[in-house]
């Protein structure tokens, strides 16, 4: 039976059919954080997004698609997320071992000069036949092509939930509407979380927000109402609040690979801010396996003990 | 990670997509028998098949749909099977708590004189939106309407597997082609298991076979080859062999309600015959809750220790 | 490159698209008879048609679906034909090892008193996803339900050929229109072959015809024109002539299990009559493996040396 | 029966249905490299891509579509790949003689100034009616139109695999995102292989990579981890590793026509790097027939003896 | 019965169904060139393409749609080709009198400045209901919009052949990729014929090629291999060779209206080059009727006597 916390989180999704809830529950009832309502997810789409050498050369075991799903299982993650090719390669041999999230769009780094926009590289039909527990999708708020992305996402969410699949949305501000600094500005991060929630995302992934305020109108409001954004913990609180006052699951990415202490210090702040968890790719799979598992366990413990 | 036995069983279904395998794995990885490759499933379709009074008056708690799914969860069953109404009533509140099997056809006892034939009372779409792990379907080999049943089943199985759902087939010989005794004759039982397997069933449910031999041609063969059918254990072996030499999951129903000793003696023989498990309805839900759980645990133990 | 004889046979099917021809060629280019234009096919649908005990008890290895496809491969058959369940069980593990023929309809022996009619137990979609080289289908000329069967077959043939799959038709006279003796009468056998050919069958399977003449009008013609039917060889010639004067592939079933000498004597007569080959089930799989292979090789040699 | 190596390669595609596996097996079980898990494929799309004179004037026999398929058959290639017109012209007369790969998109050289993008010139339906064993498709990573190409490919792969057809993807970096040198840079080549694999390609065709490193971020990684790229063999290893650590079939094109010694020296290095084979067009069909067959045999020998 | 030459030509289309072959045969068995394998077709799409005054004022009888079909019948043409309106106007009254080719796309001359691209102005359904023997379609290789045209054509060809209709493709190089001179350059003309053939055209219409060589890479090849292009006859040979070495029907348009001697001199050279015939519009219908018929007869004689 689900824990009280899992029931509470599911109660925020009462408009959804039992299939969507069951898959959300499956993700929450899996791994070392089972039943806590906290999440640590392993995502590995960097092979597509950054290329194989940049992604896997630091720990060459990762060239093999099996490595990642085994790492996620062994570390006790709630789910493993990847593009079609990686999921297809492991879905049969590891059937039922861990909830899979099929990333339905991806962007490679070989073409330049256009507004950020991913290609659709998978379908809800793929997710079903591969036994996935959710679909994943990236939007780029701030991109000149954002509306096409929102529209495609809305259709996919609707299609997915009809067959019982929840949606995980990577909300990454980027593009013509934003400065480089603005991509992780606290006002923009909260806004990105809100947009994903308004589009119907069940789980929202954002980057840890920085102290910068990008939009003049937003800046005025943050200052007028003295919204605290001085620490990462405060900023995470603000982002979580921006996603329906904490009634949507918001998880934070780990970003570029860095030292263990640095990662854990950041996660500690994120966890203290009420985050629902971490989605940690490069900092996990670019480390040697044992070290990665140790790190993931430490991250899980920080989230588990956060409240 | 799945156990070696679960992996072995999944290896018999190599033509299936990962979604079908993942749901089979989910069922095998749930409950007190998780990982053993054995099954105890709670089915409650008697409200539709026999009427509520006959079904629930012996233990009135069972009038409430929640009672059964809670019983299945608490007893540690692998799955809970029921018609649409019962599943719809509990799918949301117990989302993710236990694999659900949606019985897609049902036959009531209010009309007589026709060849046995169930109505289709649910769909693959229902199974997905309700978060089910499999569909269920009853065929009546021996019925004058059997062909229509086989044809409808084939289409449902194809539709279900495309979206990752395995199929559980109740194969109950009955109808114009058979005597009453023939319905559970050993030759007929093995034949019924074979038909379900040939139609593409992933899990096959049959009744415990009796010593009677129904068909003259089959009788000759049983006698010529001296196939042992003197004990229930021997007959179960023959039925399991009839379903692709044990390479399809065959489980046995408990039949009419009876005393605990009688049930356990029968299950002991069934388990010794290489059955993959039991699907036990009336003998479970018509007992008081504590007693039912005790019985189900005893049944599970018999299967777990059988080999 | 195909042999001259294979090219000649394919030239009878010029209205077909290249996909249909390629699959016919695949079947003709496989096994010990590759390139000869002769066929020996192993069909195993008796589990469904007669029940598992009658089919497999004589050689219990045959309860296992893998046994049959391995037998067909090892013996060097042109193809292996079976219902959905048997094909699904082996299609992945033996992918590409031998052309598979998916029997799309089947009839069990558990219901009585109706006109002979099989249930549709598979689809063209199944044949494609399972990598089959052809579909198979049984018609019962003489049955009161024959028209429904012809109509369903026509639709399946059209659907199958659009995706490059040829059709193998079991044409078995049976039913209200015929006496028991008439089922294998020479006039009826030739008629049954003609019907299958007219319905668009690419390969036609009939039973060895007997000397009986069933229909009064036909009897007159056979007698008036002194059509020789005294020997099996003569009768096979008449059946082959009845299928577009030998410009359709007609193969003959072996019928009930019998002694090796008897089988070979019959096949020798069939081969001498210009048959394109044999489709031999029970006489193959009910023998011990080594003996079955020896028999199948002898049958192949008879066909190979026939012309 | 398939060899152990063919079985091993098929085991990397466990999520696929038996139809896809059977066609992959057919390609691997054809020609002089049958059973080795190595591939030499003859592709002739240059008539469309470069025009007939540039393609066929060096060996005018090649103006006739029959020439190429006969060359592929006689040389013992695993498969022959071409656009619709060429395949349609030969599919019937050479039905069953060699696995055919229908190139579903093609780009002519008569229009300039746009981002590289091919037209869709065939369909999965065409591939089926023509009896093909696979579809082929070209993507141009680096092109401003890449996302449309990825999306169209994804739909075609899904459609094709539903009917049992695997997909061969030509991954040719080109377009606004890349310098001319970058099109064959080692970092870009590996990235191109990864993208094709993530999109679900079953067989990936890339060009032999050069020593150039195109992307600054990738350059850092190659240098930091001292990935050896000094020889073609080392670079091929890196590309093969980039396609799921060698668990996807990667074959290398021969590129522009050149002298025999030069071709063989290059193939020797490619084979030593663990390539699964060569796809060799111009260097084959632009030579006189006897010379082409001799060359293809030498290429096959290099691959066969490589490991 | 078809002549040996007609049978030979049909043998190049063996992948097609009998319906497509029958309509090709109908066209080849019609008119004064019946049985010769040569074609003279009257096309009248200039009303749409150039406007009525430019098209019909020189011979005002041509304003009446009946004029053209009667001209084609009386002159003994193989077929008459026109857009929907013209065909609809005459299809009933002249039903069965001459094979009709429905031009499925057309471009008017009222809009400028975009890349050449025709509108789809008819459908396969129209062609069937109007009793046509083929569809017609124009592509503009070299146009920036060429890919859309190729893709639409491919779908129409597939749709048309499914209902037994062959396709006639006007392949007219034009657009951003080409100079004005390049539109009829010999290298480009051969390339245009190849593209149409690869797209599946059954009959290809091109303009008489000129001596210019447009593409630098092609120029090198023409010079290196000393391909003779000095006379129109030589250039026609090269174009015919470019369409599958003469195994696709290639016919040449007459182009702008000109004097009779000039027309016949050009046709004589075209016929000597192995062209399959002429498609002659303005030079026919802009002349007085009797004169037009005389000219068409002369053109037919030149083609008939060419080989």
UniProtKB/TrEMBL annotation, chains A, B, C, D, E:
This is fructose-bisphosphate aldolase. It holds the Pfam family DeoC. Belongs to the DeoC/FbaB aldolase family. FbaB subfamily. CDD domains: DhnA (cd00958). Keywords: Lyase, Schiff base. InterPro entries: Aldolase_TIM (IPR013785), DeoC/FbaB/LacD_aldolase (IPR002915), DeoC/FbaB_aldolase (IPR050456), FbaB-like (IPR041720). Its EC number is 4.1.2.13.
């Amino acid at each position: 039976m689900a824990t009280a916390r899992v029931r509470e989180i599911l109660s925020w999704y009462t408009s959804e059919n039992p299939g969507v809830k069951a898959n959300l529950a499956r993700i929450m009832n899996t791994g070392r954080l089972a039943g806590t309502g906290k999440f640590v997810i392993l995502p590995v789409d960097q092979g597509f997004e950054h290329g194989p050498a940049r992604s896997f050369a630091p720990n060459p075991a990762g060239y093999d698609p099996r490595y990642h799903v085994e790492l996620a299982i062994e570390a006790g993650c709630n789910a493993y997320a990847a593009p079609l090719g990686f999921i297809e390669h492991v879905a049969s041999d590891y059937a039922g071992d861990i909830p899979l999230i099929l990333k339905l769009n991806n962007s490679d780094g070989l073409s330049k000069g256009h507004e950020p926009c991913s290609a659709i590289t998978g379908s809800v039909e793929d997710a079903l036949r591969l036994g996935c527990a959710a679909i994943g999708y990236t939007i780029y708020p701030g991109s000149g092509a954002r509306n096409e992305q929102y529209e495609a996402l809305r259709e996919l969410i609707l299609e997915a939930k009809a067959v019982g699949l929840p949606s995980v949305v990577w909300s990454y501000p980027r593009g013509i509407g934003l400065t480089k600094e603005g991509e992780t500005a606290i006002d923009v991060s909260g806004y990105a979380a809100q947009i994903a929630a308004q589009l119907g995302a069940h789980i929202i992934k954002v980057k840890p927000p920085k102290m910068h305020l990008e939009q003049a109108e937003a800046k005025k409001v943050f200052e007028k109402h003295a919204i605290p954004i001085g620490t990462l913990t405060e900023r995470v609180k603000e982002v979580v609040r921006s996603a329906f006052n904490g009634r949507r699951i918001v998880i934070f990415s780990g970003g570029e690979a860095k030292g263990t202490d640095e990662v854990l210090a950041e996660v500690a702040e994120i966890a203290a801010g009420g985050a629902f968890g971490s989605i940690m790719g490069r900092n996990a799979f670019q480390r040697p396996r044992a070290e990665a598992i140790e790190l993931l366990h430490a991250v899980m413990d920080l989230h588990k003990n956060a409240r």
